[in-house]
Amino acid sequence: MPQGDKSSYTDKQKRKAEHIEEGYEDRGVSHKEAARRAWATVNKETGGGKKSGSGRGKQQNHASSRKGGRIGGSGQSHEKRSAAAKKGWETRRRQAQG
């Protein structure tokens, strides 16, 4: 089986990778990078391609999916954050004087 062959993956794993890939592309990641990240996520969660047979299944870990989509940083703009900091500074200065 050549590298990159997806024949050993289940239909569910393929659908999952496609859905993850679309999410990355919606956020502006290139198609190639989105596909790479999607399959890395599927591999991490499911342990790679699944083969048939009794007792061959492994438990899945969905930590990667829970983490995905969270955008870091503050929801406020720079101006609002700066204004809040200045207001807080003025309040602390006034209270220290009085």
3D structure, described in words:
By secondary structure, the protein is mainly α. The chain has a domain at 7-50. It contains four helices and no strands. It has helices at residues 11-26, 31-46, 63-67, 78-97. The longest helix is centred in the last third of the chain and has 20 residues, at 78-97. The N and C termini lie far apart (77 Å). The relative contact order is 0.10.
End-to-end distance, in Å? 77 Å
Q: Give the count of helical stretches.
A: 4
Overall spatial form: elongated
Largest sheet: none
The secondary-structure element order is HHHH
Q: Kindly report the average pLDDT value.
A: 85
- Structural class based on helices, strands and sheet pairing: mainly alpha
Strand % is: under 5%
Radius of gyration: 23 Å
Poorly predicted runs of 5 or more residues: none
Please give the share of residues in helix.
Answer: 55-70%
Number of strands: 0
Strand and helix layout:
Elements: H1 11-26, H2 31-46, H3 63-67, H4 78-97
Helix pairs in contact: 1-2
At a glance:
This protein is an all-alpha fold and 98 residues long. Helix content is 58%, strand content 0%.
Supply database-style keywords.
0% strand; 4 helices; mainly alpha; 98 residues
